[in-house]
Amino acid sequence: MITLGILQVYYARNRVTFLQLSEERKKIEEEVHNLINQSILEGNIGRALDSKLEPIKQDILEIKNTLAKIDDRLRNLEAKGK
To answer: How far apart, in whole angstroms, are the C-alpha atoms of residue 21 and residue 14?
Structure first.
């Protein structure tokens, strides 16, 4: 009987520990799931922003090229005027 009582106490303690570990595992799984969703969302937002910014980047590049051409023409005119 004493052995059975010891085994029951041992089982009860292990059961509590197992339940605590199960809860911790659930919390960790939920946190990992949230982190994965967050990274996917951030990645999607990043791609969405990149696609929206791409035309603006192209416009800026065209403006820079136009300004460089104007600068070259002005230098050529200055060189001819000297």
So the answer is: 10
Position of tokens 């990274």?
Answer: 39
pLDDT tens-digit readout, 6-43? 667 777 777 777 778 888 888 888 998 888 888 888 88
How many angstroms separate the most distant Cα atoms in the chain? 115
pLDDT at 25: 85
Q: What is the pTM of this model?
A: 0.46
Closest C-alpha among 38, 34, 16 to residue 26: 34
In order of 31, 65, 75, 80, the CA distances from 61 in angstroms are: 42, 6, 21, 29
- Helix or strand (DSSP H, E) at 9: helix 2-81
Amino acid code (one letter) for 43: G
Residue 41, token pair as written in the block: 């969302």
